[in-house]
Amino acid sequence: MYAISSGAIVGIGIAAAVVLAALVVVVTARRSDVRGAGALSRETKSRDKASAVATAVPQSGKDVERAARGGAVATVTDTAPVVWTAPDAEQIGVTRRHFFNVSAITLMTASLGGFGAAVLAFLWPSGSGGFGGKVPIGKVDDVLAVIKQGKGFGYFPNARAWVTEYPASALPKARGTYAQPVLNGMEAGLAVLWQKCPHLGCRVPQCESSQWFECPCHGSQYNRAGEKKAGPAPRGMDRFGVEVSGGNVVVNTGLQLNGPAIGVNTTGQEAEGPHCISGEGGKH
Ligand code: FES
């Protein structure tokens, strides 16, 4: 199972915050636009109301008749009309258009930046503890106990690695074959293998009965040290650099090394029972 690092979670959180902020800005801008397009502000409404009261003049027919008979005629206040100057439509259009252009570019940039940060946080190898970095898997004795419990195969999901026992008797051959980061594990009695099949990348499961690794995808088979025995794979199983210090085993999943060439067989281990798959080298 793939673990999401804390960096990825923070990155996704940043992206979500940016998208949320973008939505708030867009909604606010939209409201402003609608109000500007036709809705009257509270201040305008109250001014209209006051104006209506001030200019209310009785002009009915009865008023006129009453005035003709000598009644009082309402006094009309002669207020000079305020000259209204229409705003420059071109100016308003440019300003609004400019605002939306700048907003759109800013939001797009911020959203892309947030998304990019989230993707980088997800893909960036973590320094330690997770796949892509250095993964401690315990003391040598503890690792050997896990292997025993797994009937010859120890699986360490954080490192996406299989670990098997590597016989001390095979070390002379191994020293002429493997690079030192791989030998570090072998010298401590451990073969540390990447779970990924070097053919097309399937996860290679163990086969307890044959005590080999046998890939169900296209039938490649490898002995317990991950050296190729059969099938279409171009080499043995790839492996990780290993550091052993004070009895503690650390798998450096950032240091991935190609598996040994076809034909390398340092341990000479043959199948110890029936195969789990029928392939080129699988004989039930
Ligand atoms: S992916 Fe394993 S044999 Fe093809």
Q: What is CATH's topology name of the largest domain?
A: Rieske Iron-sulfur Protein
Bound molecules: FE2/S2 (inorganic) cluster
Tell me the overall shape. rod-shaped
Computed CA radius of gyration, to the nearest angstrom: 40 Å
Largest sheet: 4 strands, antiparallel
Low-confidence stretches: none
Assembly type of the shown chains?
A: single chain
Strand order of the largest sheet: 5-6-7-8
Total number of beta strands: 10
Determine the fraction of residues in helical runs and give it as a percent range.
25-40%
Q: What is the CATH-assigned architecture of the largest domain?
A: 3-layer Sandwich
The CATH class of the largest domain is Mainly Beta
Description:
The chain is 39% helix and 16% strand. The protein is built from seven helices and ten strands. The strands form three sheets. Strands 5-6-7-8 form a four-stranded antiparallel sheet, with no helix packed on it. Strand 5 (206-207) and strand 6 (212-214) form a beta hairpin. The longest helix is centred in the middle third of the chain and has 35 residues, at 89-123. It is rod-shaped. It starts with 5 loop residues before the first helix and ends in a 27-residue tail after the last strand. Bound molecules: FE2/S2 (inorganic) cluster. Residues 197, 199-202, 215, 217-220, 231-233 line the site of FE2/S2 (inorganic) cluster.
